[in-house]
Amino acid sequence: MIDTVVETDVLIVGSGPAGASAALALSTYGVPNIVVTRYHRLADTPRAHITNQRTMEVLRDLGVEEQVIAQASPQHLMGNTTFCTSIAGEELGRLRSWGNDPLVQAAHELASPTRMCDMPQHLMEPVLVGAAVERGTQLRYSTVYQSFEQDADGVTATVQDRLRGDTYKIRAKYLIGADGGRSKVAEDAGLPMGGQMGVAGSINICFEADLTPYVAHRPSTLYWVLSPGATVGGIGAGLVRNVRPWNEWLIVWGYDVTAGAPDLTEEYALSVVRQLIGDDDIPVTITSSSAWTVNEMYAETYTNGRVFCAGDATHRHPPSNGLGSNTSVQDSYNLAWKLKLVLDGTASPALLDTYDAERAPIGKQIVTRANKSIGETAPIFAALDGLNPQTPEQLWANIAARKDATPAAEKQRQELREAIAFKAYEFNAHGVDLNQRYASTAIVPDGTPDPGFDRDRELYHQPSTRPGAKLPHAWLSAGTRNPSTLDLAGQGRFTVITGIGGDAWTEAARAVGAELGLDIATAVIGPGQEYDDPYGDWARLRETGDGGVLLVRPDLHIAFRHESTTPDDAAKLLSGALKRILGRDRDEK
To answer: With a threshold of 0.85, does the pTM exceed it?
Structure first.
């Protein structure tokens, strides 16, 4: 044990999407932090990849959106989700996915200034970590977290240097456990968990093969293979996932978790790849293979004192819907600004209680949704009578029968079309991505009744300025620039957005900012103002009068709104709202 104690404000255990984005946000906000990872490098396999619009908005605010866009597969190459007997075999149907259906694409463009993309984790992590280190994060590879002790003033973690073999202590004011699905930090913190681990077995096989002749005409991130054995374990069917068009791939194949994982020899991996490709003449190079289990577990609370957990440490689920890394990044984005304000004395530690209140319900929701999506694959097999044990020959006969000119075959075709279309809940769940509404003491209700959602809240995004919702996107003009409303906020600050007649709110922002020691940005939208609303989109979305106000948190969620101008008490209202959000009203009692 080395006697020297290393000190920092925030210690982050783990360098995956949650840990890396926490480090990036904290360093962007000027908060000293150290990241430790037990590994000697960042991710070396694709793992997570779907990057939704909300995450792209986060990355836009943190200044790395363009770096991600430069390396990711763009949205238009993601969306012909194909169901087939093999890549080279018979096609059973397609689903326009990930915002590529024309109607859904329009909804995507209306909802956000960003586009979703496919950014594999082994490319994403270097962007996040690289930017974090450039901005001040201290990164320690080959460093194993062993334990922590906390007291009223901080957390002392014991870590081991794997190169030297010795241990030392890191003293931090706060600890973030972002150490994955087998999180030791979450275990040591005693976080209560709901659900269960190991509900099914899966295998990842990464390989290189040029499949251009079979996929370039139907570009997609995912090709689902319905073949004998595909319903055993796994994620509902055999999956061939594109990593880089069109020669890097990852296969997900299931196994019976009660029997244990198969011996992952190169011969075994190659046999699975050959089965799912369906063309033995294609040259294939296996690059890696690994076994994992499908989990359905979520933390019921995310915090214990000065210890916070995020990412897979708190929500463990299959990759369905592409929610894992997105939720991880958004966990950290929610937490980082709160830590910053508490550490600099602007906010009470009570603000940190809202991390658990806001993110734990989201974690439970996405674990449930991801596992539900696995079950929604079964009707596709059912339409082909492929759920009952049978010989491969019988399955192929069932598939061929759908081509017959009989009433039974016509019914089968209809059932297959409907079953594939229903997978929109996995591949086009725009509402799951964007409809997150927070409720906590960091949100000030405006007294209006909750109108709910006009359409299915999982499939359709419904923009709202109701406190707790994320700030709606609208394109504005500012001279020769065309910023989004989202570009007016963020950057670690609260923002007051108002319109013509809202001078009382901008004056209140300056006065209250000085009172509370808080940097509050202001933006006035309207003709002749700093920002104009040339299309009238903002006027339709804002749900306030011209002189009303929205107070936007650093994470782009709306904390407070008032419908109209109130010159006499604007400062009182804004000060009261911010004291509640920051937890300072509790300190004054």
So the answer is: yes
